[in-house]
Design goal:
With 239 residues, the chain is mainly alpha-helical. The chain has a single domain, classed as Glycerol uptake facilitator protein (Up-down Bundle), CATH 1.20.1080.10. It contains ten helices and no strands. Helix 1 (9-61) crosses helix 7, helix 6 runs antiparallel to helix 7 and helix 6 (129-153) packs parallel to helix 9 (194-211).
């Protein structure tokens, strides 16, 4: 996901629509994860993680706008463009809720909803759940940025890029790390509450903290390389 320039009205509408579609893909991926997990137990968790990663792959392929993917652009887009993050997150949530409503009134509901309620209840009832949610979402944010970066840094395109995008997603989904947008789906099935919304807010903060680690390190590396080149040029000029 490349940093966005100043948007026209048409581009803004497109940005919102692609954010909405991204939310739908997260909702579909999350549903597939829950369905596989409930049917096949521990092996289903692995199968579900692979299925969930296909949703992220579709988002990357069609350049949809995902909040946790847009975070990786924060250091380069500048503070004046950070308004895109809450707008993207809002439309991601709307997309997820749209998918959740469709699932809730579909035949899948009897399998998916109880599993989502079980998973989310365990997280909310855990001791020190706020700290656990923060640490978990930081790890998720880091892996999401790693996945998005695979598009630019994979040694080859096509298969290697596909594997590079999917593998970090499979890891975070299998480990159960907290993805703020995906958690919206689980919270919808459990029921919105003050505690659940606070949990979601902690996940947003954690996703941001984890998501900017690699971009900041990358910018620091570029800066250090430029500094080294300038120093070498200066030393050569003094000889």
């Amino acid at each position: 996901m490349k940093p966005l320039e100043k948007l026209t009205k048409a581009q803004f509408i497109s940005f919102c629509f692609m954010s909405f579609c991204s939310g739908i893909m997260i909702g579909v991926g999350g549903t597939a994860f829950l369905f596989a997990y409930n049917l096949f137990g521990d092996w289903g968790r692995l199968i579900g993680s692979v299925l969930f990663s296909l949703g992220i792959l579709a988002i990357v392929m069609f350049d949809m706008k995902l909040f946790t993917g847009l975070i990786s652009d924060m250091p380069e887009m500048g503070a004046k463009n950070w308004w895109k993050l809450p707008v993207c997150f809002l439309w991601n949530m709307i997309g997820v809720l749209f998918a959740a409503v469709l699932v809730y009134y579909s035949p899948l509901a009897d399998v998916v909803v109880p599993k989502a309620q079980e998973m989310m209840s365990v997280k909310l009832d855990a001791e020190w759940w706020g700290l656990k949610a923060l640490c978990s979402s930081i790890l998720c944010g880091f892996l999401i940025t790693l996945s998005i970066g695979a598009v630019n840094y994979a040694p080859r395109k096509k298969l290697s890029t596909t594997v590079g995008v999917m593998f970090p997603i499979i890891v975070f989904a299998f480990c159960g790390f907290d993805h703020s947008v995906a958690n919206t789906l689980y919270i919808y099935f459990l029921g919105f509450s003050g505690k659940a919304m606070l949990y979601l807010l902690v996940c947003v903060v954690g996703n941001i903290l984890g998501g900017v680690i690699l971009p900041i390190l990358s910018l620091f590396r570029i800066w250090s390389n430029k500094t080294q080149v300038k120093q070498e040029t200066k030393e050569q000029g003094q000889e």
